[in-house]
Amino acid sequence: METLPSVKDLSVKQKTVLLRTNYDVSLKNGEVTSGTRIDESLATINYLFGQQAKIILLSHLGRPEGKVNPGLSLKPVVNYLGQLLKKEVPLFSTINEIDKNQPMVMLENLRFWSGEENNDLNFTKSLANLGDFFINDAFACSHRQHASIVGLPQFLPSALGLDFLKEVEVLSGVRENPRRPVTLILGGAKEDKLEVMEKLLDWANAILIGGKLSQLINRSSPTKVIMACLNPDGKDITLESVEKFKKIIVQSGTIVWAGPMGYYEDEKWSMGTREIAKAIIGSGA
Questions:
Q1: Mean pLDDT (whole number) for 175-181
Q2: Within 13 Å, how many C-alpha atoms sit on residue 8's CB side?
Q3: How confident is the model at residue 167 (pLDDT cuts 50, 70, 90)?
Q4: What ranges make up the beta strands (E) of the chain?
Q5: Rounded-to-integer distance, Cα 25 and Cα 38, Å
Q6: Could you tell me which SUPFAM superfamilies the record lists for this protein (predicted)?
Q7: Is the pLDDT confidence value at 252 over 90?
C-alpha cells in the first residue's frame, strides 16, 4: 500500500494546527448520544498536545445548508470533548473571533458558511490564515469537494490524522484479503453510500440495505443486493427484514457495516440497528 503522509511526518511542535475532524454525531435534547467519533479523534489530539501544538478544531454537523441553525451548533460537541479532556474547549461562532493563544479551540459548524460546501476560495483562505499546518482526520468526509477537505491542502502543509490512517489500514486489509463470504451492510439516509455500493458490487458476496437508503434503490438491483422493508412509520426496518439479514450475517466471513437500520437514537426505533449489531457480534466474522 502506498505510504500516506502522517501528522507525525510534519514539524508541528509549538505550531498552530487546523485539525479537520468528523464530529457529525447524533444529538438528543442538546446532548451527544453517541460520542464514538469524538473518542476516536483523541489519538491525534493527544499527539498534537504532546508536540505542544495549538489546535483549531474544524467540523460540520448535519445539513444546515449555509445558514446558522442553533439546533446544529457544535456546543454539545465541545461540552462532550471538554469532559473527555477535563478542560474547557472554547467554541467560536466567527473566524475572526478565534483566540489562537488558547491550547485548543473549535470553530462553529463549518456548514453554517456556504463557502464550506461550495469550496469557496475566499472562505478557504480565511481558514488557512488561522494556522501553520492542516491535518485531515475526517476519513468518512474525505470524498467531499469541500473547503475544509480539498481546499485547505492547497494553502497549508498537510497530512492525515492517526484515526484516518487507522481506518485506511483496516479497510485496506479487508479489501485485499477478506475472509469469504463478504457481506456489506449499508444504512442511514445518505445517498453517497449508493456510490460505495456500486464500487463494491463485484467485491461483496451480499449487500444488505436498510434505513431510508432502502427506499432509494431500484428494486430490480442484482440479486446479491437485498433490501429491507421499513415499518409503516418508516423509522426502522421490520422484524422480518431483521431475520432475513441475520441468516446472511451468520454465514459471513467478513462484514463491513456503515449506517444504522433506522432512527436508532430513539429507543422506539432502535430494534433493527440493535439486532443487526448483536447478530454481527455473534457471527464471529
A1: 92
A2: 10
A3: very high
A4: 16-20, 27-28, 31-32, 54-58, 91-92, 104-107, 133-136, 158-160, 182-186, 206-209, 225-227, 254-258
A5: 8
A6: Phosphoglycerate kinase
A7: yes
